[in-house]
Hints:
Blueprint: H1 30-36, H2 40-50, E1 56-57, H3 58-69, H4 79-100, E2 103-106, E3 111-114, H5 118-125, H6 135-154, H7 165-198
Antiparallel strand pairs: 1-3, 2-3
Amino acid sequence: MATEETDTPGLGSRIGWGIRTDALGDQLSREEIFEALSNERRRCALYYLRQRDGPVALSDIVDYVAAWQYDQPVSQLDPNDRMCVYSALHQAHLPKLDAAGFVDYDSEAGEVHPRDEAVYAQLYLEYDPGNDIPWSGLYLGLVGIGAFVAGLQALSVFPFEQLAPELLLWGTLVLVGTAALGHLVHEWRNKLAAADLFEVDR
Length: 202
């Protein structure tokens, strides 16, 4: 359920600066992308569009966003609430997403066509800075530990000189493999968190 409807200043402080946005080309600056995704209604609309194939009717997006915002099943939406969401999406939010290059909004036909660039918005929707782990530092640390132990073995430092090279190799692979598995689970949980945030009762 939404708790606020205004654009959020300083969103950059809450979104991972390490996420690459250059795939969108030179059309938008990082700040413009943050601005486009700083509103909860726009994020919800993009989440819904990412679950659909092909063009989506404006009325379907309105129903979904209104159901999410007011925490009501689509079948029980109040017409006034729905109209409020329709006006905001039609007049402000969808044109904003269109200008950002995430969608093509045909206001006359009442259709929204998600663009391939919308996949990069998903990175922001699934990123939780409070639950982030510095994976690059972790991997470098594991490699450093492996190199350190290998160096001690090469210098015949007790008890490392007794380690077989094969054991050292497999130990390093197990450590890195475990970290990679943890990374995969972490990303999967972030996707589930995004689904929990924006899913609604139909």
